Structures are given as structure tokens and as C-alpha cells.
Amino acid sequence: MKAVALTHYLPIGDPESLFDARLPKPSPTGHDLLVRVEAVSVNPVDAKVRAPKDKVEDNPKVLGYDAAGVVESVGDAVTRFKPGDAVYYAGDITRPGSNAEFQLVDERIVGAMPQTLSFAEAAALPLTTITAWEALFTRLGIDRDGGNQGQSILIIGGAGGVGSIAIQLAKLAGLVVIATASRPQSQAWVRGLGADHSVDYSDALIEEMAQLGHREVDFIANFSNTDAYWGVMAELIRPQGKIVGIVENTDPLDLNLLKSKSVTFAWEFMFTRSMYQTADMADQGHLLDEVAALIDAKTIRTSLGQTLSPINAANLRQAHAQIESGRTIGKLVLTGWG
Predict the structure, then answer these.
(1) Domain's final residue, options 217, 242, 267
(2) Residue 163, domain extent
(3) How far apart are CA 179 and CA 155, in angstroms?
(4) Number of neighbouring beta carbons within 10 Å of residue 183
(5) Is the N-terminal amide bond of 52 cis, ω within 30° of 0?
(6) Measured between alpha carbons, how far is 302 from 123 in angstroms, rounded to an integer?
(7) CA pair distance 55, 99, nearest whole angstrom
(8) How many other C-beta atoms lie within 10 A of the C-beta of residue 261?
(9) 331 located within any domain
């Protein structure tokens, strides 16, 4: 089968950082589906895993943590899907990724693809949707049914893939949403998704929030840079408020800044369930099914921003470079194998 792989961890400008490969087609057993991949999207985690390091893979390693496709065959323990079903999923970071014509994925972390979306539109959703959903409803404990109606949330990184979904989910839950966005295009994007206010990433964030009448917020979801915003978040969060982050810190975080306000801080990592085979692992598949229903009801929409075709090493290198630039609006998807 066709695939895009790496053996050495190199700067994305190096043509060997990602290369076209031919690999054996896998076979499913147990809870696995064998999916014929039709579209994939690229996330910051792809670039982080591929980032230069002193390591060499003995066998070609396939990245990719978002896909939409069609079930080709199933393992003997599969109960939720059958060959021919259209599915979407984010996969498992401990297993070969989606940048291949065929991929094995555990049915418990797979959802039935929204019926109203193309493969490209669906592939934009899984990783960011799971991350946003778990960040808001599991880690921050926001009530999906409106129990926090009228409370406020600051979403840092509003125009990115996770932020684009989080804005929509937070509005569904009845929150007042303030999203950071630095450029006119990204500000228009977040407002188009339903954000009540957009604010700049600049050093004047606290002052901008005050001008909006939000000197404090009930929740903060940081989908950008934990280190850069730690002090700002400590100042803006309301006493007994909650903060969630998804980007690992590079320097020690001073938790004492949160103590006097009794603030809760939580990490969100959407691969935790599959990585540790947690008892609630199947919740991610059910979550994706719920989101598909919301999509088909036109309650929320895909965050697809740009599409490249076909899926090959050259286009994936271009996509990684764009992700590393930090200027992507929405999601970047590759479709078709050429």
C-alpha cells in the first residue's frame, strides 16, 4: 500500500523528513477495523512527533492522527461497524498513523462519519473535536445542557483547529465566549463560529479583557501556549474558576499563582484513553457519534480551512511547514491518493 513515512527526524525543509513509501497492507484482528483512508488532516502533534531529534527508526514510521475513510474489513471482536461503513477517527498515537492507504484502528475510538460531510470535511474534525469536547465537558466540567448558562470562557487560540470546535461547543452550552485571534482573517473566523468577542494575543490582553467588561472569567481553555499565558491566566481567572491546557510547558509552572483563588488546573490529552486502554475508552467513539448528529443537524460545522491533494510526501511536507508557521486558520486536510 502507499504511505508517507519517516526514518530520521529532520527539519521539514529536508526532502527526507517525510518520504513516499510502499508498506505491507495490515490485517485486522480483535476490536480493530481496517480502514481505507480517503482523507487525513494535519495537527500540531504531527509536527511535534516529527520534530528533529537524535533517533532513527529501524522501519518506516507512519504519522497521522486524523482520518476519514471506509471500513475495508473487521476483526473478530468488532460489533459496531461492518465493511462499507464510512467512519472518522483520530487514532492512537502508539500505533501506525493515518498517512497510509490502509490503517488499523480500534473500533472503540471510531465514530460513524457525518452523513452530510465529504471525507475531507469529516477528516478535519476528530482530533480537535475530541480534544475540545473533553477539555470543556470533562476537564472543566461545563454542563452541556446549559447549567453554566451566561458564564464566561476565554478561549486562547480561538482560530486554530481545537479552538474552532471549542467556540461552537461553548456557545451550545450557553457560555459567553471570548476568543483570542491576532489577525483580521482569524478574528472574522472566530466571530463567524459564534464567539461573542475576539481579542488580540498581544501583551495588552488583560487590558483588552477589561475594556470588554470581563476583568475575570469563569473558565479558561488554553489551546496555544501554556508558558506564555500562565501569569495572564492566573490574573484573569475568577476565584474558584477552572483552567484547562493542552500544550505541555517548557518551564516549571508556578502553581502558587492559583492558590489564593482556589483555581483548578487540568491537562487535556485526547490520546490518554487509547494510550492507557482506559475503561471508558469507548466514550470517544460515542462522542464522535454525537458530534456527527450535531453536524448533520447543522448545529455545528466542520472546521476545514484548506484542502491539498493528493496525499503524498510533498503535500504533507507543505502541510507540516504551514502548521509550524503557527498561522493556520481552521484545519488543513489532504485528500485522495492520486
Answers:
(1) 267
(2) 129-267
(3) 5
(4) 13
(5) no
(6) 9
(7) 20
(8) 15
(9) yes
Structure confidence at residue 37 as a pLDDT band (50, 70, 90)? very high
Query: Would residue 191 count as lying in a domain?
Result: yes
What is the number of structural domains in the chain?
A: 2
Specify the residue for cell string 480502514.
35
Query: 212: domain CATH number?
Result: 3.40.50.720
Pairwise CA distance, residues 169 & 58, whole Å = 42
For residue 37, tell me if it sits in a domain.
yes
Final residue in a domain of this structure, among 217, 232, 267: 267
Find the CATH number of the domain harbouring 67: 3.90.180.10
Q: Are residues 180 and 294 in the same domain?
A: no
**Does the residue 239 lie in any domain?**
yes
What's the Rg (C-alpha) of the chain?
Answer: 20
Task: Specify the pTM.
Answer: 0.95
Q: Supply the pLDDT for residue 130.
A: 98
C-beta atoms surrounding 325 within 10 Å: 8
User: What phi, psi does 12 have (nearest 5°)?
Assistant: -65, -20
The residue behind cell 476583568 is 215
Judged by DSSP in three states, 191 sits in helix
User: Grid coordinates 482520518 are at which residue?
Assistant: 67
d(CA 296, CA 62): 31
Task: Spell out the residues 6+ positions from residue 131 whose beta carbon is closer than 8 angstroms to its own.
Answer: 162, 165, 223, 246, 268, 270
Residue 272: pLDDT band (50, 70, 90) is: very high
Q: Are residues 311 and 208 in the same domain?
A: no
